Amino acid sequence: MAKVIMGAHGLANKPERPILTGWWQAAIAEGLRENTAMERAAFEFKMIFWADLLYKKLQHNDELFSFDNLYNSEPYVEAVPGALKSYKEGFLDKVRAGALDVVGETLDVLKVKFDMNAVADLVLGKFLKDLAFYYDDRQQIRNRSSQPETACQVLRDELISAIKEEQDKEIMLIAHSMGSIIAYDALRDLGQSDPEITVSHFVTIGSPLGLPHVKGKIIKERYYDPKVRTPSVVTESWINYADKDDKVAFDVHLRDDYGENSHGVRVVDDLVANDYESPAGKINPHKSYGYLRTPELAEHIGEFLAS
């Protein structure tokens, strides 16, 4: 069966579709070249692009207008030689994981008992505006038919349509940042409306799915009790890659939060070292390009393409 890698970006503004698509492809190819035996691997890639649904004007890369707020200061650039290294998980990582599990469970209980959703929404509105926007039922954007709908529904439908179009192929879906929440919700919707649809491999990178507020929203919308779980359309694996310095992926361990689905698939966490550094020397452990070329994800993609 033919294979396709699908990518879902986050909600921050992005450059035009062809540019972003090319950069994701280049980062994946760099990871395969530097970390596997697949030096010139050919693969089909499809970008789930919704920046043009969310922003009137997209980012540009014209250095003569670098003072412009729309100037993209973090384009894809190849890694510095020797920067791509596997992450070695240590004792402190395990201690941190246990502490986050305790904190997360405590916050979940407090939210239910004391109705902390309103407070959380205010915090999200200040610090995680993308997340607040997605969960706000009052927010509407235009779909591809120019009809206004809630933002969350338009974005989910965009991904669902793309997955349905590729059902004659084996799919690996890689979702970054807020895109991982949209992807999770879309896959859960598919499991209820079209259970025959399948996605072999679900990959999340820099994901905020471990945030108690996010889990609370999922539970409230879908009436899960007591735990959320892997979407039923995922048949082979769900791997969550996170850099411990990535503030968006605050809880880098999802396994204790999400149960297994009917196929026995349960999320597996894998800490990685995101090497991304902008041309100006800015380190960003949340950047998608850095995640896409990590040795761990490159090996996973290589195995998928070779199987």
Structural key phrases:
single chain; 307 residues; alpha/beta; Rossmann fold; 40% helix
Helix and strand topology:
Layout: E1 3-8, H1 17-35, E2 45-48, H2 51-54, H3 91-114, H4 117-127, H5 129-135, E3 140-142, E4 148-150, H6 151-165, E5 170-176, H7 178-193, E6 199-205, H8 212-222, E7 228-229, E8 234-242, E9 258-259, E10 268-271, H9 288-292, H10 295-306
Parallel strand pairs: 1-2, 1-5, 5-6, 6-8, 7-9, 8-10
Antiparallel strand pairs: 3-4
And the CATH topology?
Answer: Rossmann fold
Unreliable residue stretches? 106-117
- Classification by helices and strands: alpha/beta
Task: Determine the CATH superfamily.
Answer: Alpha/Beta hydrolase fold, catalytic domain
Main sheet overview: 6 strands, parallel
End-to-end CA span = 10 Å
Helix coverage percent = 40-55%
Question: Given the C-alpha coordinates, what overall shape results?
Answer: globular
How large is the count of helical segments?
10
| Mean pLDDT reading | 88
Tell me the CATH architecture: 3-Layer(aba) Sandwich
| Biggest sheet: strand arrangement | 2-1-5-6-8-10
* Estimated share of beta-strand residues: 15-25%
Tell how many strands the DSSP assignment holds: 10
Could you characterize the architecture of this molecule?
Helix 6 (151-165) packs across helix 7 (178-193). This protein has one domain (3-306): Alpha/Beta hydrolase fold, catalytic domain (Rossmann fold, 3-Layer(aba) Sandwich), CATH 3.40.50.1820. The chain has a 6-stranded parallel β-sheet with strand order 2-1-5-6-8-10, with helices on both faces. It is of the alpha/beta class and 307 residues long. 36% of the residues are buried. The model is unreliable at 106-117 (pLDDT under 50). It is built from 10 helices and 10 strands.
